[in-house]
Amino acid sequence: MFNTLVRPDDMERITTPALAKVFIDEQIANIKAQVGDKKVLLALSGGVDSSVVAALLIKAIGQNLVCVHVNHGLLRKGEPEQVIQVFKNEMNANLIYVDAVDRFLDKLAGVTDPEQKRMIIGGEFIEVFAEEARKQDGIQFLAQGTIWPDILESEAGIKAHHNAGGLPEDLSFELVEPVRILFKDEVRVVGKELGLPDNMVYRQPFPGPGLGVRCPGAITRDRLEAVRESDAILREEFAKNGLEGKVWQYFTVVPDFKSTGVKNGKRTFDWPCIIRAINTTDVMEVTVEHLSNELIDHLVQRIISEVPGINRVLFDYTPKPPATVEYE
Ligand code: XMP
Fold it and tell me: Which has more confidence, 167 or 65?
């Protein structure tokens, strides 16, 4: 029933563990039939879609799945560690971890234009992934976390489907897309049934260029660290306060300007940290999540005392439109 490239009109929405199990069993059989004893390559970011694809393929073909996790230095605190823990340590995946932090940050040094930053990050990602792919023998398939809205949006001309990831021509693989006919909420139900941790399954959306778009202007390692640390504090406090999974997206931005402050009787000249928390259904229009005064006060205290280089905390009250969700 699920061995199809097009979602059937009458397909029941996968909302329960029992329905997820039927899907999983059938997809495992489909993958085995498609791939046989050949090898499959997967770029595993740790996002919901690629993680669910990895878990399905590990069940279906085990060590014949080669996962490549590229750390481009713009991931959130703890993300690469979690990918290694869940997939390598717990699921015994054949996982290649590529530490490309210096390579990305060196290329991005001094680059201020947002579009150029995105192009560098996207282009370098493909290069690093292609280099790893060429090191592997006998790969015939490329797995992707394409989901049904990706297909609908590319058909409607809204966004280009990330089909085959723009890999160079010498790397032509047949695609394996086991969650292709699912909506995002269904991918989460399937992920939960596959045993993935909640903070992976119910993860908020995270842009491909990562923290790079939350460090506006030229990325420097110290300001990037301030974004990463403040984001980790925000996520921790949202989880403690029951907001994880309830608020669509929340993050911090550290803009490239400094202002005067005072700490322990001494003048400081440091960055502000901006908190953004939004809700939406389609990300075309978003509203702002209003936080309690207590939570705001607590966040301000933690961020200014724990994050080096920050002397002020601001809250972004702007809906979309006119503001976009991300700052670049
Ligand atoms: P904007 O900033 O356009 O963001 O209002 C809308 C949603 O898209 C996410 N976003 C991205 N996701 N690659 C992605 O995978 C990107 O380059 C990118 N830019 C923005 C953003 O986080 C928000 O959820």
Answer: 65
Q: Give the whole-angstrom CA distance, residue 279 versus residue 202.
A: 15
Biggest alpha carbon–alpha carbon distance for the chain: 70
Tell me how far CA of residue 89 lies from CA of 61, 70, 82, 296, in angstroms: 17, 17, 10, 37
Report whether residue 318 contacts ligand 1, using a CB cutoff of 6 Å.
no
Cα of 197 to ligand 1 centre, how many Å? 24
With a cut of 60, say whether residue 164 has pLDDT above it: no
Q: Record the pTM.
A: 0.94
Ligand 1 atom nearest to CA at 118: 17
Atom 22, ligand 1: residue with shortest CA distance: 207
What is the average pLDDT value for the chain, to the nearest integer?
95
CA of 162 to the centre of ligand 1 (A): 14
| The length of the chain, given as a count of residues | 328
Q: Record the tokens describing residue 258, joined without a space.
A: 């400094």
